[in-house]
Amino acid sequence: MATVFLAGGAGYIGSHTAVELLNAGYDVVVADNFSNSSPEAIKRVEKITGRMVKLYELDIKDNSKLAEVFRENSIDAVIHFAGLKAVGESVQKPIMYYRNNIDTTLALLETMKEFGVNNILFSSSATVYGEENKVPFTETMARGACSNPYGWTKSMMEQILEDAAKADKDLSVILLRYFNPIGAHESGMIGEDPLGIPNNLMPYVSQVAVGRRECLTIFGNDYPTPDGTCRRDYIHVVDLAKGHVKAIDYILANNCVEIFNLGTGTPYSVTEIVDTFEKVNGINVNHVYGPRREGDLAELYANADKALKILGWKAEKTLEDMCRDSWNWQKNNPDGYNGKKETLA
Ligand code: NAD
Ligand code: WQD
Fold first, then answer.
1. Could you give the CA distance from residue 167 to residue 262 in angstroms, rounded to a whole number?
2. What atom in ligand 2 is closest to the CA of residue 154?
3. Hey, which of 152, 156, 196, 302 has its CA 20 to 30 A from 126?
4. Pair type for strands 27-32 and 234-236
5. At 175, phi and psi to the nearest 5?
6. In 10 A of CB 96, how many CB atoms?
7. Looking at the whole model, is its pTM more than 0.90?
8. Quick one: which ligand is closest to 201's CA?
């Protein structure tokens, strides 16, 4: 069976993808600098699957270290998860974001070329559609103007990968545009473990539920949506991970340059998330309504038809599954992987 190299594979989406690739019979090699993750995640992937993962601690920007990994393993395809992803932080520290996200991509492409590896999947984001395009977003739409440096790194990396594939006909590239991944593996052994105060909704909700944060602020209830709160296309991380397996199957069988939305196609509001979380888990989530957060769009969701048509993939899990599994992870691991996080915001 083929070997897949996961750059940044100890993180939230990478660890779930590792489980699904191993379950599908692929061999998995992971490299991560643990800037936003823990090696414990990979130990748990091994426990869940009963399979071994070769793990390297290194910075993906480091070409010479990366070359060692490619020398020691016969890699068939790469998935590039390694990136910094906090939108607000990217506004404060744009240079750090451009340096890390772009350089990891360039180092991977250079090393792949050196070792004759011709298949790469890239973790892109719905954020590249920008503000101009109308929902639902389809892959044929042009990339839009991003509202923050994080988004621009994704947009630029898409361009870099497309240009590289244009110049090198052997190189196959799949850009996977994720919508809003939430949830966790049903074992409750791996999940999202953000450092410090969470930026994203679901980790915040579950940390309030577990008592690590006092109260959730819902950012705005005067949007032009059915209940006035923003709507997003939340997708269960296990469905998302299975989408990667389908994309790996596809890229190993086809010389291609493709873009796929990985979303459900159905938007839910912030209030629906909080209500569903409380209902399925039988737990209260303290919340108040506050002002809008700068840069938020009212509504954002995918047209997910292309992934179904070409990859034969569609999200199967429900909002209830997402809320139940997020909470299962959080209550089993109240302080994340290492148990040395701060207590209250
Ligand atoms: P994550 O932070 O949990 O995972 C990213 C991993 O990359 C981490 O383990 C981190 O330590 C590692 N990393 C970062 N820079 C590195 C470097 N220079 N060298 C080695 N390792 C490095 O984030 P995630 O949610 O799993 O996201 C994975 C990818 O998907 C990211 O590129 C992210 O931008 C993208 N994405 C995430 C979301 C989301 O909402 N979670 C949505 C769209 C796209
Ligand atoms: C979801 C909704 C908030 C926190 C971001 C990135 C995007 C992609 C996914 C990587 C919004 C509301 C949130 C809170 C709230 N990441 N909210 N109170 O902003 O849709 O997307 O993550 O590529 O690029 O921008 O996700 O989870 O931050 O917010 O009311 O404390 O929850 O206003 O409507 P977002 P999010």
1. 27
2. 23
3. 196
4. unpaired
5. -95, 120
6. 13
7. yes
8. 2
Q: What is the pLDDT along the chain (345 residues), one digit of tens a residue?
A: 899 999 999 999 999 999 999 999 999 999 999 999 999 999 999 999 999 999 999 999 999 999 999 999 999 999 999 999 999 999 999 999 999 999 999 999 999 999 999 999 999 999 999 999 999 999 999 999 999 999 999 999 999 999 999 999 999 999 999 999 999 999 999 999 998 999 999 999 999 999 999 999 999 999 999 999 999 999 999 999 999 999 999 999 999 999 999 999 999 999 999 999 999 999 999 999 999 999 999 999 999 999 999 999 999 999 999 999 999 999 999 999 986 444 333
- Ligand nearest the Cα atom of residue 227: 2
Q: How many CB atoms lie within 10 A of CB 124?
A: 24
Question: Residues lining ligand 2, CB < 6 A?
Answer: 85, 87, 125, 127, 180, 199-201, 204, 216-219, 230, 232, 270, 293, 296
Report the alpha-carbon distance of residue 162 to residue 142 in Å, rounded.
Answer: 13
- Alpha carbon distance 159, 144 (integer Å): 12
Q: Are strands 268-269 and 231-232 parallel, antiparallel or unpaired?
A: antiparallel
Q: What are the beta bridge partners of residue 300?
A: 232
Question: In sequence order, what are the residues at sequence separation of 6 or more whose Cβ sits closer than 8 angstroms to the Cβ of residue 179?
Answer: 126, 232, 233, 234, 235, 261, 262, 263, 264, 300, 301, 302
| DSSP class per residue in 269-281 | EHHHHHHHHHHHH
Q: Among this protein's residues, is 150 annotated catalytic?
A: yes
Q: Is the Cβ–Cβ distance between 238 and 20 less than 8 Å?
A: yes
> What DSSP character marks residue 13?
H
Q: Is 12 in the pocket of ligand 1 (CB under 6 A)?
A: yes
Closest CA to 141 of 254, 306, 266, 312: 306
Backbone angles phi, psi at 173, to 5 degrees: -130, 130
